[in-house]
Design a protein that fits this description.
- The structure is a single chain.
- The protein is α+β, with helices and mostly antiparallel strands.
- A 7-stranded antiparallel sheet has the order 11-17-16-15-14-13-12, sandwiched between helices. The protein has a 4-stranded antiparallel sheet with strand order 4-3-2-5, with no helix packed on it. Strands 1-10-9 form a 3-stranded antiparallel sheet, with helices on one face.
- The structure holds FE2/S2 (inorganic) cluster and fe (ii) ion.
- Fe (ii) ion (FE2) binds next to α7.
């Protein structure tokens, strides 16, 4: 696709123009993003509590509705985690179909067995098959990484997981990630009639907070709101008004002199990790189609007594306000009279960073 080959964002935000509107509305561009962007990125796949004990296995799907890759996460008898293809190497059935604790995995179609680290173990009726078994009969291993209980996997990583999470670990590693417990009752899914990247664009700037989020604007000190850029992530610092719920930071922490109510981390390309005094709200943005996106809000709570307050309260309202505005942008970018815009250097450095990374990935097959 020729216009993708020349897609670039000027590194100088003062000169740069935003992504052209066709990136958000062209079905072919969207199809290519699956291979060029998502396949090579890190995606959240599971809560590690699903594989808490040795022998535990759980089936997961990488980026449902877009990549749809079936994997299995297992914890072997030596307490080591594995992330494997969940496709039987015989004729392709899914091997693990539900969470459980097992001595081995057995395909229910013709009985092929695998160890919990994915090695071929046995197969009935295969006497006389040449060169069998071979390493090709093992379940392929998939690169994965862990941030507390959040498990991420990548089918073809363009960069190491450590590079994705190094900055969040350095800045927010003091938080009790290992104590966070998934709370399904506080988790939600939203269907947004817009391109996934518009949803991310909107997330990546606090510029719209005073205009779109009246409630949140009262908790946030907008003048002190800022965005920091990292190689594969951004951090927006939600500094709160006096009297509003905020983190108790360890002494010597770089933000110790600020009232931080929220750390809003975005991981390239479609994951958001919102850290609040009560815990983590993980947002997974799933592209279903060029103009349809499913957004999952997953809550992991480490301090239930601090829920529903400050910047981390009223998340559902904020989400609906964002949804409406993003859907309006989707209709606008389809206009014949709109091509692309410019950035506010003071307020849109995060959007500029995302567009730079996205344009770069989309240029390369
Ligand atoms: S497909 Fe798994 S044993 Fe045949
Ligand atoms: Fe918003």
């Amino acid at each position: 696709m020729e216009r993708l080959a020349s897609l670039a964002i000027d590194p100088d935000i003062r000169r740069a123009r935003t992504l052209p509107a066709w990136v958000y509305s062209d079905a072919e561009v969207h199809r290519l993003q699956r291979e060029r962007v998502f396949l090579k990125s890190w995606q959240w796949v599971a809560d590690a509590d699903r594989v808490k004990v040795p022998g535990a296995v759980c089936p997961v799907t990488v980026l449902e509705g877009c990549l749809d890759e079936p994997l299995v996460v297992s914890r072997d008898r030596d307490d080591v985690l594995h992330c494997l293809s969940n496709v039987c190497t015989h004729r392709g059935t899914l091997v693990c179909e539900r969470d459980g604790v097992e001595a081995f995995m057995r395909c229910r179609y013709h009985g092929r067995r695998f160890t919990l680290d994915g090695k071929f173990l046995s197969m009935p009726e295969f006497d006389g098959v040449e060169g069998f078994p071979s390493p090709a009969d093992d379940l392929p291993r998939v690169p994965f990484g862990q941030l507390g209980k959040l498990l991420f996997a990548s089918l073809r990583p363009a960069f190491p997981f450590a590079e994705l999470v190094a900055d969040v670990q350095a800045r927010c590693g003091f938080l009790p990630f290992d104590r966070a417990v998934f709370d399904a009752t506080r988790s939600r899914e939203y269907l947004v009639q817009a391109n996934w990247a518009l949803y991310c664009d909107n997330y990546l700037e606090g510029f719209h907070i005073p205009y779109v989020h009246g409630g949140l604007a009262q908790a946030i000190d907008y003048a002190n709101y800022r965005c920091e850029l990292y190689p594969w992530s951004t951090l927006q610092l939600g500094v709160t008004q006096p009297g509003v719920e905020c983190f108790t930071l360890p002494s010597g922490h770089p933000d110790a002199n600020l009232r931080v109510g929220a750390y809003y981390w975005w991981f390239y390309p479609n994951t958001m990790l919102n850290l609040y005094p009560w815990g983590v709200s993980l947002n997974v943005v799933r592209p279903l189609d060029v103009n349809r996106t499913k957004v999952s809000f997953l809550s992991f709570v480490w301090d239930g007594s601090r829920l529903d307050r400050g910047a981390g309260g009223g998340l559902d309202r904020v989400e609906r306000e964002d949804e409406v505005i993003v859907e309006s942008v989707q209709r606008g970018t389809a206009s014949r009279l709109y091509e692309r815009g410019r950035y506010s250097p003071a307020r849109e450095s995060g959007v500029h960073h995302f567009h730079t990374l996205l344009a770069r990935s989309m240029r390369h097959a």
